[in-house]
Write a structure and sequence with these properties.
This protein is of the alpha/beta class and 469 residues long. It contains 23 helices and seven strands. A hairpin with a 2-residue loop joins strand 3 and strand 4. The chain is elongated.
Amino acid sequence: MVAVPLSVGIAVASGVPVELGLVTGVVGGLLTGLLPGSSFQVSGPAAGLTVLVFEAVREYGLGALGALVLAAGLLQIAMGVLRLGRWFRAISVAVVQGMLTGIGLVLIAGQLYALADAAPPGGGLANLGGLPGLIVDTLGSADAMCAVAVGAGTIAVLVLWPRWRRGAQFLPGPLAAVALATTAVAALSLPVARIQVNGLLDAVQPPGSRDLARLTEMGVLGTVLAFALIASAESLFSAAAVDRLHDGPRTDYDKELIAQGAGNTVCGVLGALPLTAVIVRSATNVNAGARTKASRVLHGLWLLVFAAVLPWALEIIPVAALAGVLIHAGWKLIPGRDFARLWHEHRGEAIVLAVTTGAIVTTNLFEGVLVGLLMAIAKAAWETSHVHVETVGAEDGIVRARVLGNANFLRLPKLLDELEALPRPGHGVELDLSGLRHMDHACRSALSAWAERNAESRGAVATGPPVGP
């Protein structure tokens, strides 16, 4: 009940036939659900990859999607075999939150057009820049206003539904919202766009030789890498969150990465959307009382039955309702409270989050995440390069000082400023470098040069034993 509206909505937002979202959900249940790794994670199409898929389909065409997902799946399997799954836990939380925030903003910007039954002009910046024109066009069209009303009503139900605890226990919010919107559109005969369904078999388009040949292009390889890394990160972060919700077996990260790769390999062969494990479906699975892997396998089976037996039920769903579901999902990806807390407690982390978000919105998902990772690495290097000069005492006209910490090029200006500020009552300065835990080549050269200059102008300068890099 959760997976149907999400799978369909994500497919629409990705610019592909709705059946491909259902195919991915079926593969996530029947294949990934059977493989070892996590016991309770539920896999399927995810909002986190919507922006990247949309851009890939727009640039390379729908036929190339299968080749991209196939290559990403094989790369995930290789990473799992090489036992790289655990390393995804080393990614900065600020980068992850920035990635989700950027995805959320771009997703919302794109779905605001679908909310008004309009076509988005392009990528993140283009969509944001076109919002004033969208507002003007919507206010001047009665049909567009009807669509916006349907979408806004869907969002309102999504926000209010969890507060009705009895109803929320029996019917998930996304399904209730879409069902109510569909009923209202049908009852009032509103002039809004509805999704189009052609059948699962007609939508399946395995990649051809020409599509596979494009995997040698640099741009395509970058997209494959982005698919693999982001899908893997989202799945493994979800696994860590799901493990906190139950007392059952813990996730084997490497096996889970192989399972996700196997699922994406099959999705690629079928030309479907990439799959990941996401916390929304997985948490629903645990809260519903799941005890074994059978729960997530049956989720895939029910999706298959629904798509095969009741395809007509999808054709009555208004596009604006699905846009409302995805706008709500995008909003939940934005960590507003977490950002405020980070700004007060760890301002550097908040800056990394903001830079990652801005880079994703202004460029694309892959380049934005790379910028965020570089920012996090630079921040970590800066914070771990603490170095200071401590004056021990002055005897016989010689100032004895110790240099403590980690001396690398990032803190070299500060180190030289402190050395220049040392008092020189007579014969010079004696430096003790034995307190350094690390000294790189740049600092070694700079300290040697400083010692030589001061030895000539202010008397002898003695240095303690050098510390290796």
